[in-house]
Design a protein that fits this description.
The chain is an alpha+beta fold and 370 residues long. It has a domain of 85 residues. The protein is built from 18 helices and 13 strands. The strands form 4 sheets. Strands 10-11-12-13 form a 4-stranded antiparallel sheet, with helices on one face. Helix 7 crosses helix 8 and helix 12 packs across helix 14. It is globular, with a radius of gyration of 21 Å. GO terms for molecular function: DNA binding.
Amino acid sequence: MALATLTVDQVLAWRAGRHLLHRPADVDPVDVVGRLVGVQAQVPSAAEQAVAARQADPRPGALADALARRRLLRTWAMRGTLHVLRVEDAPACLSLLAAGRFWEKGSWQRTFVTVDKLAATAEAAAAALDGRTLTREQLTAEIVERTGDRTIAGHLGSGWGALFKPLAWQGLLVQGPAEGNRVTFTRPETLLPDWPGLPDPTEAASRVVPAWLGAYGPASPETFDQWLSRGGSKRPALRGWFARLVDAGELVPVTVDDRPAYARAVDVDEIAAARPDDAVRLLPAFDQWVLGPGTKDSTIVPAARRAAVSRAAGWISPVVVHRGRVVGTWEARDGEPAVDLWPESPPVPADGLDAERARVRAYLSGSGDA
């Protein structure tokens, strides 16, 4: 069978629809999070805005409501960053992260703790959180008491969650309901009585890889792994996940502007028929449109402008997107979206930009009017 030959313009036009950037009616936060295979939530307000950017009638606080109703959960997931995930997707995503066993690498152990110390920490945390919800300070104190090891207190108290991330990936803890402005932790089965535990990684990949390609494809296994773990998955396992899906007929090889990639078989005709439109979108910091393919993807973010998007300390700027490409950045100044368009980018329709600024202004003011 001949490979389908696709163009970047077709791919970006198709992705815009898959990302819900045309804002279909009756899309709720759970729909958005599921379609994007998680929304990065290091900054909760950015996660809220990422959902709102894909809704016809956004309501501030809607994502927090879905978390409170336990239709979503928040935990350390892809790339070691906090994400909001659909409850039904979280076990498979975490399974693939745990399969990488990143904490067993010598560099990780030299920076943080040995595998034996981490195992003791995991056992203590699991016992401390059994049927309970604790703040970071409470959990840290219990782990230190149960292990008798005060040398780990600094790592546990770090805002980066260095020791908590491997526990999250193994399904041993998730974030619980907040206590005011304090984060809490609990066991996933305490928060969610129907929690199934983590599936086998091969089974998990059969769910996560197609779901990811359904939003960010066509793409290579390496791009998928950068999204998942910054390239940390074991190479044979990664290749095997894709090969099995190709053998099953679920994925097919394609080319995008002569570059090899994989797509879901069910999507190829739709991608080939996709055509870009002139829609302009103001997307928030850490938006999945940029994070899914990664900031190194020059079809999304021009290489010369990457530093304006991927900034110091891991900050990903709010971006202006036109025809699928980042053409500038923006920031909120006293509730007003101040836009910086890059002069070398193709012209952006003024009426579309004005409408998008008005929409964001209304959302930031708390009205949520679209």
